[in-house]
Amino acid sequence: MDNASGSTATGTQAVARAAALLKLVSLRDAATDGAATRTSDLARRSGLTRPTTYRLLSALRDEGLVDQDAATRAWVAGPELYLMGMAAAPRYDVVEIARDIVRSLAVRTEESAFLSVRRGDETVCVLREDGSFPIRSFVLSEGVRFPLGVASAGLAILSFLPPHDVDAYFARHPELPERWGVAHAESRIRDRIEETTSRGFALNAGLIVEGSYGLGAAVFSGAGEPQWALSLTGVQFRFSPARMPELGRTLLAHAHQLSQRLANARRDVNPLERARAAR
């Protein structure tokens, strides 16, 4: 939290604060749908005072990393972030690797299908493909982030983390039931983790938006770490007990296919990249 005087932090603390503000500006938050991007909103969400928030945002604006809309005073991502993203994409972008698999999942199930990536204690949706069924859920779309364990993608990832990592996650986030409702208390999420590891895929039965169901399956790195997730969302009657096993099998098959493809892609990294990674 910011201190009472609102003095600007130095060194690593200032970098961490600036990075936190960049994430808030550039990635839509599912709880606000991207609306809270004014200085006062960003200060509240980051835990900083308003003067400190404004100073950091102004410094980021001077470097082209953020910009401010003249009419709304909302902060938006700046041009330098776009250029940085282009430079990083060849190394980290899994969207093109996964696109046809996500599209196949949407075609096979007729539901909306998604790819999400783990970023720290959250998942961020990076790809959406809509199926042919005309009634859809719009809880999730590109750029929306959720804490692990809240949406089906994050629950699938959390469920397959080592137990000590799960314990540490809950220790860091006692606020989950206050922000997301009592259904997201630690004991309730742990029950769903046990169910997820038993059946292989996660189920969110209308816990974010009533009547909107989600299934999630973890996608693993070559080292066996759950770094991504495939998920399906739709209206409740489309996720009936009779249809759930079929949806789960289809989801798991696509997640397994993507895990294998990503592992193979990593093995195909050129020798220069392999040497860099070994340093």
Automatic annotation (TrEMBL):
MF (Gene Ontology): DNA binding; DNA-binding transcription factor activity
Membrane-spanning residues: none
Tell me where in this chain the IclR-ED domain is found. Answer: 80-264
Tell me which residues make up the HTH iclR-type domain.
12-79
The keyword Transcription regulation is annotated on this UniProt entry: yes
A Pfam family this chain is assigned to: HTH_IclR
**GO biological process entries:** negative regulation of DNA-templated transcription
UniProt KW keywords:
DNA-binding, Transcription, Transcription regulation
Q: Give the matching InterPro entries.
A: GAF-like_dom_sf, HTH_MetabolicPath_Reg, Tscrpt_reg_IclR_C, Tscrpt_reg_IclR_N, WH-like_DNA-bd_sf, WH_DNA-bd_sf
Cross-referenced PANTHER family: HELIX-TURN-HELIX TRANSCRIPTIONAL REGULATOR, ICLR FAMILY, TRANSCRIPTIONAL REGULATORY PROTEIN
Q: What is this protein called?
A: IclR family transcriptional regulator
Q: Which organism is it from?
A: Microbacterium telephonicum
